[in-house]
Specification:
The chain has two domains: 3-143 and 304-333, Rossmann fold; 152-296, Isocitrate/Isopropylmalate dehydrogenase-like (Rossmann fold, 3-Layer(aba) Sandwich). Helix 2 (27-39) links the parallel strand 1 and strand 2. Helix 8 (183-201) crosses helix 9 (221-236). The chain contains 13 helices and eleven strands. The protein is globular and about 65 Å long. By secondary structure, the protein is of the alpha/beta class. Strands 8-7-9-6-5-10 form a six-stranded mixed sheet, sandwiched between helices. A five-stranded parallel sheet has the order 3-2-1-4-11, with helices on both faces. The mean pLDDT is 95.
Protein backbone atom coordinates (compact mmCIF):
# COMPACT_ATOMS: atom_id res chain seq x y z
CA UNK A 1 0.00 0.00 0.00
CA UNK A 2 1.14 3.53 -0.76
CA UNK A 3 2.67 5.08 2.40
CA UNK A 4 0.36 8.11 2.16
CA UNK A 5 -2.76 5.93 2.08
CA UNK A 6 -1.37 3.82 4.90
CA UNK A 7 -0.85 7.01 6.89
CA UNK A 8 -4.39 8.19 6.17
CA UNK A 9 -5.76 4.89 7.44
CA UNK A 10 -3.59 5.03 10.55
CA UNK A 11 -4.73 8.57 11.28
CA UNK A 12 -8.37 7.51 10.87
CA UNK A 13 -7.82 4.60 13.25
CA UNK A 14 -6.80 7.06 15.95
CA UNK A 15 -9.88 9.25 15.41
CA UNK A 16 -12.58 6.55 15.73
CA UNK A 17 -15.22 8.64 13.98
CA UNK A 18 -18.67 7.30 13.15
CA UNK A 19 -19.34 7.07 9.42
CA UNK A 20 -22.73 6.18 7.98
CA UNK A 21 -22.96 4.04 4.84
CA UNK A 22 -26.45 4.44 3.31
CA UNK A 23 -25.85 1.70 0.73
CA UNK A 24 -25.68 -0.94 3.43
CA UNK A 25 -26.76 -3.87 1.27
CA UNK A 26 -24.41 -3.14 -1.66
CA UNK A 27 -21.82 -5.93 -1.99
CA UNK A 28 -18.65 -3.82 -2.39
CA UNK A 29 -19.79 -1.56 0.45
CA UNK A 30 -20.23 -4.54 2.77
CA UNK A 31 -16.84 -5.98 1.83
CA UNK A 32 -15.25 -2.60 2.48
CA UNK A 33 -17.14 -2.28 5.77
CA UNK A 34 -15.74 -5.63 6.85
CA UNK A 35 -12.17 -4.40 6.22
CA UNK A 36 -12.84 -1.07 7.96
CA UNK A 37 -14.20 -2.82 11.04
CA UNK A 38 -11.47 -5.45 11.03
CA UNK A 39 -8.78 -2.74 10.90
CA UNK A 40 -10.64 -0.47 13.31
CA UNK A 41 -10.57 2.52 10.94
CA UNK A 42 -13.96 3.90 11.99
CA UNK A 43 -17.23 3.08 13.67
CA UNK A 44 -19.84 2.26 11.04
CA UNK A 45 -23.59 2.60 10.68
CA UNK A 46 -25.03 0.47 7.87
CA UNK A 47 -28.44 1.46 6.53
CA UNK A 48 -30.52 -1.35 5.05
CA UNK A 49 -32.43 -4.51 5.79
CA UNK A 50 -30.78 -6.32 8.71
CA UNK A 51 -31.88 -9.67 7.30
CA UNK A 52 -30.30 -8.93 3.91
CA UNK A 53 -27.10 -7.62 5.48
CA UNK A 54 -26.88 -10.73 7.67
CA UNK A 55 -27.45 -12.98 4.65
CA UNK A 56 -24.77 -11.26 2.59
CA UNK A 57 -22.32 -11.34 5.47
CA UNK A 58 -22.72 -15.13 5.64
CA UNK A 59 -22.52 -15.61 1.86
CA UNK A 60 -19.28 -13.59 1.64
CA UNK A 61 -17.90 -14.63 5.05
CA UNK A 62 -17.80 -11.07 6.36
CA UNK A 63 -17.27 -11.97 9.97
CA UNK A 64 -16.59 -8.46 11.29
CA UNK A 65 -19.89 -6.90 10.20
CA UNK A 66 -21.44 -7.70 13.55
CA UNK A 67 -19.40 -4.77 14.91
CA UNK A 68 -21.47 -2.32 12.83
CA UNK A 69 -24.68 -0.63 13.90
CA UNK A 70 -27.43 -1.64 11.46
CA UNK A 71 -30.56 0.48 11.00
CA UNK A 72 -33.45 -0.47 8.74
CA UNK A 73 -34.81 2.78 7.23
CA UNK A 74 -38.09 1.07 6.34
CA UNK A 75 -38.92 0.11 9.94
CA UNK A 76 -36.98 2.69 11.90
CA UNK A 77 -38.56 3.27 15.34
CA UNK A 78 -37.10 6.81 15.29
CA UNK A 79 -38.86 7.71 12.01
CA UNK A 80 -41.05 10.42 13.52
CA UNK A 81 -38.08 12.17 15.09
CA UNK A 82 -36.09 12.22 11.86
CA UNK A 83 -39.14 13.26 9.84
CA UNK A 84 -39.73 16.18 12.21
CA UNK A 85 -36.15 17.42 11.77
CA UNK A 86 -36.44 17.18 7.98
CA UNK A 87 -39.81 18.92 7.97
CA UNK A 88 -38.48 21.83 10.04
CA UNK A 89 -35.48 22.17 7.73
CA UNK A 90 -37.53 22.16 4.52
CA UNK A 91 -41.03 23.43 5.33
CA UNK A 92 -40.14 26.92 4.12
CA UNK A 93 -39.42 25.29 0.74
CA UNK A 94 -42.87 23.70 0.69
CA UNK A 95 -42.15 20.27 2.14
CA UNK A 96 -45.08 18.68 3.93
CA UNK A 97 -44.80 16.48 7.01
CA UNK A 98 -46.09 13.53 4.97
CA UNK A 99 -43.33 14.05 2.40
CA UNK A 100 -40.76 14.38 5.19
CA UNK A 101 -41.90 11.04 6.63
CA UNK A 102 -41.52 9.40 3.22
CA UNK A 103 -38.05 10.87 2.61
CA UNK A 104 -36.85 9.94 6.10
CA UNK A 105 -37.13 6.29 5.03
CA UNK A 106 -34.74 6.96 2.13
CA UNK A 107 -31.24 5.86 3.26
CA UNK A 108 -29.59 8.90 1.63
CA UNK A 109 -31.84 11.26 3.61
CA UNK A 110 -31.61 9.20 6.80
CA UNK A 111 -27.80 9.31 6.61
CA UNK A 112 -27.60 13.10 6.51
CA UNK A 113 -30.28 13.42 9.18
CA UNK A 114 -28.12 11.29 11.48
CA UNK A 115 -25.22 13.65 10.80
CA UNK A 116 -27.45 16.66 11.47
CA UNK A 117 -28.40 15.19 14.86
CA UNK A 118 -24.79 14.35 15.76
CA UNK A 119 -25.34 10.60 15.54
CA UNK A 120 -22.72 10.23 12.80
CA UNK A 121 -19.68 12.29 11.84
CA UNK A 122 -19.72 11.75 8.08
CA UNK A 123 -21.15 9.78 5.19
CA UNK A 124 -19.86 7.86 2.17
CA UNK A 125 -22.21 6.82 -0.63
CA UNK A 126 -22.41 6.62 -4.42
CA UNK A 127 -21.48 3.01 -5.19
CA UNK A 128 -25.03 2.52 -6.47
CA UNK A 129 -26.45 6.06 -6.54
CA UNK A 130 -25.81 8.99 -8.87
CA UNK A 131 -23.90 11.99 -7.56
CA UNK A 132 -26.98 14.21 -7.68
CA UNK A 133 -28.94 11.76 -5.55
CA UNK A 134 -26.14 11.65 -2.96
CA UNK A 135 -25.62 15.41 -2.78
CA UNK A 136 -29.23 16.64 -2.90
CA UNK A 137 -30.10 15.51 0.66
CA UNK A 138 -26.73 16.79 1.88
CA UNK A 139 -27.35 20.27 0.50
CA UNK A 140 -30.88 20.33 1.93
CA UNK A 141 -30.06 19.11 5.43
CA UNK A 142 -26.35 19.49 6.27
CA UNK A 143 -25.67 22.49 3.98
CA UNK A 144 -22.35 24.24 3.51
CA UNK A 145 -19.81 25.19 6.18
CA UNK A 146 -20.00 28.68 7.73
CA UNK A 147 -18.47 31.27 5.42
CA UNK A 148 -18.49 28.85 2.46
CA UNK A 149 -21.10 29.07 -0.28
CA UNK A 150 -19.66 26.60 -2.77
CA UNK A 151 -18.92 22.88 -2.67
CA UNK A 152 -15.88 21.67 -4.59
CA UNK A 153 -13.99 18.46 -5.24
CA UNK A 154 -10.32 17.86 -4.46
CA UNK A 155 -8.05 15.04 -5.57
CA UNK A 156 -4.99 13.75 -3.77
CA UNK A 157 -2.49 13.24 -6.57
CA UNK A 158 0.18 10.75 -5.51
CA UNK A 159 3.10 11.06 -7.92
CA UNK A 160 5.50 8.19 -8.68
CA UNK A 161 8.38 10.70 -8.37
CA UNK A 162 8.80 12.07 -4.83
CA UNK A 163 10.57 15.18 -6.12
CA UNK A 164 7.22 16.76 -6.98
CA UNK A 165 4.94 18.52 -4.54
CA UNK A 166 5.25 17.38 -0.94
CA UNK A 167 7.32 14.19 -1.24
CA UNK A 168 5.27 13.24 -4.29
CA UNK A 169 1.89 14.55 -3.11
CA UNK A 170 -0.24 17.32 -4.55
CA UNK A 171 -3.81 18.33 -3.77
CA UNK A 172 -5.72 19.55 -6.86
CA UNK A 173 -9.05 21.44 -6.84
CA UNK A 174 -11.66 21.99 -8.11
CA UNK A 175 -11.64 18.96 -10.39
CA UNK A 176 -15.16 17.65 -9.88
CA UNK A 177 -18.00 20.00 -8.96
CA UNK A 178 -18.25 23.72 -9.77
CA UNK A 179 -17.87 24.59 -13.48
CA UNK A 180 -17.15 28.32 -13.44
CA UNK A 181 -16.47 29.87 -10.01
CA UNK A 182 -16.35 33.62 -9.62
CA UNK A 183 -13.52 35.25 -7.68
CA UNK A 184 -15.14 34.83 -4.26
CA UNK A 185 -16.08 31.23 -4.93
CA UNK A 186 -12.56 30.51 -6.17
CA UNK A 187 -11.18 32.02 -2.96
CA UNK A 188 -13.48 29.77 -0.92
CA UNK A 189 -12.28 26.76 -2.91
CA UNK A 190 -8.68 27.71 -2.14
CA UNK A 191 -9.32 28.01 1.60
CA UNK A 192 -11.31 24.76 1.67
CA UNK A 193 -8.61 22.90 -0.28
CA UNK A 194 -5.92 24.05 2.12
CA UNK A 195 -8.00 22.73 5.01
CA UNK A 196 -8.47 19.43 3.17
CA UNK A 197 -4.71 19.13 2.67
CA UNK A 198 -4.16 19.67 6.39
CA UNK A 199 -6.96 17.43 7.64
CA UNK A 200 -6.40 14.47 5.36
CA UNK A 201 -2.71 14.42 4.49
CA UNK A 202 -1.21 16.46 7.33
CA UNK A 203 0.30 18.95 4.88
CA UNK A 204 1.29 22.47 5.68
CA UNK A 205 -0.41 23.83 2.57
CA UNK A 206 1.42 26.05 0.11
CA UNK A 207 -1.33 27.14 -2.27
CA UNK A 208 -0.76 28.20 -5.86
CA UNK A 209 -3.62 29.95 -7.65
CA UNK A 210 -3.06 28.86 -11.24
CA UNK A 211 -3.50 30.86 -14.41
CA UNK A 212 -1.90 31.31 -17.83
CA UNK A 213 -0.11 34.33 -16.36
CA UNK A 214 2.52 34.74 -13.64
CA UNK A 215 2.51 37.91 -11.55
CA UNK A 216 1.11 40.16 -14.25
CA UNK A 217 2.84 38.65 -17.31
CA UNK A 218 -0.50 38.66 -19.15
CA UNK A 219 -3.55 40.91 -18.95
CA UNK A 220 -7.03 39.42 -19.23
CA UNK A 221 -10.27 39.28 -17.20
CA UNK A 222 -9.56 35.59 -16.48
CA UNK A 223 -6.25 36.61 -14.90
CA UNK A 224 -7.96 39.37 -12.94
CA UNK A 225 -10.33 36.78 -11.45
CA UNK A 226 -7.44 34.72 -10.09
CA UNK A 227 -5.68 37.81 -8.69
CA UNK A 228 -8.87 38.89 -6.92
CA UNK A 229 -9.51 35.36 -5.64
CA UNK A 230 -6.02 35.30 -4.14
CA UNK A 231 -6.65 38.61 -2.37
CA UNK A 232 -9.98 37.39 -1.01
CA UNK A 233 -8.51 34.08 0.17
CA UNK A 234 -5.91 35.99 2.17
CA UNK A 235 -8.71 37.98 3.79
CA UNK A 236 -10.64 34.80 4.62
CA UNK A 237 -7.58 33.15 6.19
CA UNK A 238 -4.67 35.52 6.92
CA UNK A 239 -2.51 32.57 8.03
CA UNK A 240 -2.74 30.87 4.65
CA UNK A 241 0.41 30.58 2.54
CA UNK A 242 -0.96 31.42 -0.90
CA UNK A 243 0.30 33.04 -4.10
CA UNK A 244 -1.34 33.98 -7.35
CA UNK A 245 -1.52 34.28 -10.17
CA UNK A 246 1.04 31.62 -11.12
CA UNK A 247 1.54 29.51 -14.21
CA UNK A 248 1.76 25.78 -13.52
CA UNK A 249 5.50 25.54 -14.15
CA UNK A 250 6.19 28.56 -11.94
CA UNK A 251 4.13 26.91 -9.20
CA UNK A 252 5.89 23.55 -9.13
CA UNK A 253 9.40 23.94 -10.67
CA UNK A 254 11.70 25.80 -8.30
CA UNK A 255 14.10 27.16 -10.92
CA UNK A 256 11.23 28.54 -12.99
CA UNK A 257 9.42 29.85 -9.93
CA UNK A 258 12.49 31.80 -8.83
CA UNK A 259 12.85 33.29 -12.29
CA UNK A 260 9.19 34.20 -12.87
CA UNK A 261 8.24 35.13 -9.31
CA UNK A 262 11.45 36.09 -7.46
CA UNK A 263 11.01 36.35 -3.72
CA UNK A 264 7.83 34.24 -3.62
CA UNK A 265 7.59 31.70 -0.79
CA UNK A 266 5.21 29.55 -2.86
CA UNK A 267 6.52 29.64 -6.42
CA UNK A 268 8.28 26.39 -7.27
CA UNK A 269 7.24 24.84 -3.93
CA UNK A 270 3.44 24.58 -4.15
CA UNK A 271 1.76 21.43 -2.86
CA UNK A 272 -1.84 22.63 -3.35
CA UNK A 273 -2.88 23.63 -6.87
CA UNK A 274 -6.13 25.56 -7.31
CA UNK A 275 -7.35 25.73 -10.88
CA UNK A 276 -9.34 28.69 -12.23
CA UNK A 277 -12.27 26.53 -13.29
CA UNK A 278 -13.57 22.97 -13.44
CA UNK A 279 -12.60 22.58 -17.09
CA UNK A 280 -8.90 23.12 -16.43
CA UNK A 281 -8.91 21.21 -13.14
CA UNK A 282 -10.60 18.12 -14.54
CA UNK A 283 -8.37 18.04 -17.63
CA UNK A 284 -5.22 18.52 -15.57
CA UNK A 285 -5.84 15.78 -13.03
CA UNK A 286 -6.69 13.25 -15.74
CA UNK A 287 -3.57 14.14 -17.75
CA UNK A 288 -1.34 13.86 -14.68
CA UNK A 289 -3.00 10.58 -13.75
CA UNK A 290 -2.56 9.03 -17.20
CA UNK A 291 0.67 10.54 -18.48
CA UNK A 292 2.64 10.76 -15.25
CA UNK A 293 1.20 7.59 -13.71
CA UNK A 294 -0.08 9.42 -10.64
CA UNK A 295 -2.61 7.80 -8.33
CA UNK A 296 -5.67 10.05 -8.11
CA UNK A 297 -7.57 9.60 -4.83
CA UNK A 298 -10.94 11.32 -4.77
CA UNK A 299 -12.87 13.35 -5.39
CA UNK A 300 -13.00 14.50 -1.81
CA UNK A 301 -15.94 16.84 -1.40
CA UNK A 302 -15.17 19.98 0.56
CA UNK A 303 -17.18 22.93 1.74
CA UNK A 304 -19.97 20.97 3.44
CA UNK A 305 -20.71 21.56 7.12
CA UNK A 306 -19.88 17.88 7.68
CA UNK A 307 -17.92 15.50 5.43
CA UNK A 308 -20.13 13.76 2.88
CA UNK A 309 -18.27 12.02 0.08
CA UNK A 310 -19.48 10.60 -3.20
CA UNK A 311 -18.08 7.43 -4.72
CA UNK A 312 -17.89 6.54 -8.39
CA UNK A 313 -20.36 3.81 -9.27
CA UNK A 314 -17.37 1.93 -10.69
CA UNK A 315 -15.49 2.10 -7.38
CA UNK A 316 -13.52 -0.78 -5.94
CA UNK A 317 -13.64 -2.12 -2.40
CA UNK A 318 -10.32 -0.40 -1.67
CA UNK A 319 -11.72 2.90 -3.00
CA UNK A 320 -14.51 2.70 -0.42
CA UNK A 321 -12.13 1.84 2.42
CA UNK A 322 -9.86 4.75 1.52
CA UNK A 323 -12.72 7.22 1.19
CA UNK A 324 -14.15 6.22 4.57
CA UNK A 325 -10.70 6.81 6.11
CA UNK A 326 -10.47 10.18 4.36
CA UNK A 327 -13.97 11.10 5.56
CA UNK A 328 -13.03 10.23 9.13
CA UNK A 329 -9.98 12.47 8.90
CA UNK A 330 -12.07 15.30 7.44
CA UNK A 331 -14.47 14.95 10.37
CA UNK A 332 -11.58 15.15 12.82
CA UNK A 333 -10.30 18.31 11.17
CA UNK A 334 -13.61 20.21 11.29
Amino acid sequence: MNPLLAGIREKARKQQKTIVLPEGTEERTLKAANIILQEGLARLVLLGSPAEIHHLSEVHDLQFLDRATVIDPASNPQLDRYASILYEARKAKGMTLEEARRLATDPLYLGVLMIKLGEADGEVAGAMNATGDVLRPAFQVVKTAPGISVVSGAFLMIMPDARWGENGLFVFADCAVHPDPNARELAEIAVATARTAQAIAGLEPRVAMLSFSTMGSAKHPLVDKVVEATRLAREMDPTLEIEGELQADAAIVESIGQKKAPGSRIAGRANVLVFPGLETGNIAYKLVQRLAGAEAVGPVLQGMAAPINDLSRGCSVDDIVNLVAITANQAAGQ
